[in-house]
Amino acid sequence: MRKKHRKDFKAKVALEALKGESTLQELAVKYEVAPNQISQWKKQLLDGAADIFERPNKKKPEVVKAEKERDEILKTVGEMKLENDFLKKKYRQLYGKEPF
C-alpha cells in the first residue's frame, strides 16, 4: 500500500537531505521513506526553489496575452460604434429619416 506524505513532511526531509549532515540511507531509516523518494523530493525542492521568489501577483504570459487581445477587441468595437453612429447621422442628414 502506498503511503501519502504531507507537503510539509516532504519539505522537511528534502531540506535535511540538502544539508548533507546525514546520508540518504540514514534519512530513509529515520523517516521510514525510500532513499529514492528522498532524492526525488530533494530534486523537486531544488527545481521549485526559484518559484518561491516569484511575485505572487505577477500575471502569467497567457493572462497578459488574453488581456491584450480583449483590449484590442474592445478598441475595435468602440471604433465600429463611432463609425456606425457617424453613418446613421449622415443617413439622417441625406434622407431625412432614420435608417431601417
Features:
100 residues; mainly alpha; 2 domains; 70% helix
Question: Mind explaining what this structure looks like?
Answer:
The protein is 70% helix and 0% strand. By secondary structure, the chain is mainly α. It has 2 domains: 1-56; 59-100, no CATH class.
**H-E order:** HHHH
Q: How many beta-strand runs? A: 0
- Compute the CA-based radius of gyration: 31 Å
Shape: rod-shaped
Structural class: mainly alpha
Biggest β-sheet description: none
Whole-number total of structural domains: 2
Number of helices: 4
Quick recap of the structure?
The chain is 70% helix and 0% strand. It has 100 residues and is mainly α.
Topology:
Layout: H1 7-19, H2 24-31, H3 35-48, H4 61-95
Helix pairs in contact: 1-3, 2-3
